[in-house]
Specification:
single chain; 2 domains; 32% helix; binds nicotinamide-adenine-dinucleotide
Length: 251
Amino acid sequence: MAIRVFLNGCNGRMGQVISGLAKDSQDLEIVAGSDLSQAVVQPFPVFARAQDCDVAFDVIIDFSNPAALPNLFELIRNTQKPAVICTTGLEEAEKNELDGLAQASAIFVSANMSLGVNILISLAQKAAAILYPDFDIEIIEAHHRQKVDAPSGTALMIADALNQTLDNQLEYTYDRSQVRQKRGDRELGLSSIRGGTIVGEHTVLFAGGEETISIHHSAQSRNVFARGALAAARFLAGKPAGRYEMKDLIN
Ligand SMILES: NC(=O)c1ccc[n+]([C@@H]2O[C@H](COP(=O)([O-])OP(=O)(O)OC[C@H]3O[C@@H](n4cnc5c(N)ncnc54)[C@H](O)[C@@H]3O)[C@@H](O)[C@H]2O)c1
C-alpha cells in the first residue's frame, strides 16, 4: 500500500512541485493538504487549517510559512504522525516546540533537502577545520525575489555546521553598513542576494592571504528539494519518535 501523505502548504511553489512528482510515484500518494490559498485545484481535499484534516494519512510533508506552523503543530500533537518540516525562517520558540513534538512523533527537519547542499556542508566543514583561522569565512546566498526570509535557512544551516566544527568560536555578521571597523578574526559574514527566479545558490568562501577557495552549490530546479522531501517521507514512515535530519537519511 502507498504511503499516504498530508501536504502542508500544498498550493505554494514547493507544494505544487511535490504534488506533481507524487502523481508519478508508485509508493507515495498525497491524500490531503492544507493551505490558506485555495487558488489551485488539487485532486485531494485542501483544509484551510491543518488541524481540521479528517482524512487518514501516514506522514506529513511541510513546505509552508512559519505562520502556518501553529495549526500544523496542533495536527502533529493530535495525530502523533511523523512529519518532514522543510519550512525555513523558524524562531527559537518554534524549534523548541518541535523538540517537544519529537517526544511522541518522528520529526525530520532540514532547511535544505538537496543532497548536494548536504555534501557542500561536509566539504566546507573539512576545509574550515584546516583553513581557519588563517582564512576568513564568508557565506553568500542568492534566491528568487519572492523569498521572505534572509539570510536563507540553508545559509544559517551551513554557518551552524561550520561553527560547530570550530567549537562555536564564530560570530555571525549580517550587516556591515552600520559599523566602521575592520573585519574581526571570529566573524563569519552572511550576505544575501534577492532577484528574479534564482532557485538557490550558496557559496562558502575561504579568503586567505593572496588566495581564495570557494565551494559552491547551485540548485537549478525545485525538484531537487522535492525529491529530497519525498525520500525523507519514505525514510520517516514507521520510524520511532525523535529528531531526524539529512545526515540520518544520507547515512
Ligand atoms: N527545506 C528545503 O529544502 C526548502 C526548499 C525550498 C523552500 N523551502 C521553504 O519552504 C517554504 C515554502 O516555500 P515556497 O517557495 O513553496 O513558498 P510559497 O510562498 O510559494 O508557498 C507557501 C504556501 O504556504 C501557504 N501559507 C502561508 N501562510 C499560511 C498559513 N498561515 N496557513 C496555511 N497556509 C499558509 C501559502 O498560501 C503558500 O501556498 C519556505 O519557508 C521556503 O523557504 C525549503
